[in-house]
């Protein structure tokens, strides 16, 4: 039992600082109040008497959500380039115009590539497909005659006859209807042979 008591006393003695009030990972303010050692020289007054920032020439390592000023002071990331000098040395506002230009350029490039890859290239691919594949296919389909089935009924027998005609033939028949009565075929003069022999 005495060994356990001695061991626990040793652990407590190591954890408590020499002043007897704050743990070793804490800073004691002049008022006697204990704060985390990471708050010492961080640019924020954590002690009510501001003793945690007195005598600081360099500041402690900043957390990932903080910005480290040129002097080593840590400030909130939201204080960078906000138009106010949050760092004592004003370094949080240095180069903000360059940063704004870089952000503008990055946004401009993002929009350009988005429009290029999401709009222009797909439209170009569709046009090429139409011109190279669908265009010639459409032209070939339009230039060949289309057959249409027509149904005629013979008046005497009542039988239905289906014949295949082309659209062009139907158009010719519509433009030039057959004569009402049979006419004799016209006679053309015979074709004369050429005067010179064809080679």
Automatic annotation (TrEMBL):
Pfam families: Ldl_recept_a (PF00057)
SUPFAM superfamilies hit by this protein: LDL receptor-like module (SSF57424)
SMART domains found in the cross-reference section: LDLa
Disulfide links within the chain: 22-34, 29-47, 41-56, 62-74, 69-87, 81-96
Keyword Lipoprotein on entry: yes
Ranges that cross the membrane: 101-134
Superkingdom of the organism of origin: Eukaryota
Annotated signal sequence range: 1-20
UniProt cross-references to InterPro entries, sorted A to Z: LDL_receptor-like_sf, LDLR_class-A_CS, LDrepeatLR_classA_rpt
Keywords: Disulfide bond, Lipoprotein, Membrane, Receptor, Signal, Transmembrane, Transmembrane helix
Protein name (database record): Low-density lipoprotein receptor-related protein 4
């Amino acid at each position: 039992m005495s060994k356990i008591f001695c061991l626990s006393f040793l652990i407590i003695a190591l954890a408590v600082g020499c002043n007897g009030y704050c743990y070793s990972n804490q800073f004691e303010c002049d008022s006697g109040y204990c704060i985390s050692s990471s708050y010492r020289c961080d640019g924020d007054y954590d002690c009510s008497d501001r003793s945690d920032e007195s005598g600081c020439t360099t500041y402690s390592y900043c957390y990932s959500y903080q910005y480290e000023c040129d002097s080593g002071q840590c400030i909130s990331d939201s204080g960078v380039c906000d138009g106010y000098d949050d760092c004592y040395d004003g370094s949080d506002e240095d180069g903000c115009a360059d940063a704004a230009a870089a952000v503008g350029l990055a946004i401009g490039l993002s929009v350009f590539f988005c429009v290029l890859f999401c709009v222009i290239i797909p439209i170009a691919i569709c046009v090429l497909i139409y011109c190279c594949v669908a265009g010639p296919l459409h032209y070939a389909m339009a230039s060949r005659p289309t057959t249409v089935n027509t149904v005629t009924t013979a008046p005497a027998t009542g039988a239905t006859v289906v014949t295949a005609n082309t659209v062009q033939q139907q158009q010719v028949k519509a433009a030039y209807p057959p004569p009402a009565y049979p006419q004799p075929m016209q006679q053309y003069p015979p074709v004369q042979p050429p005067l010179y022999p064809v080679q």
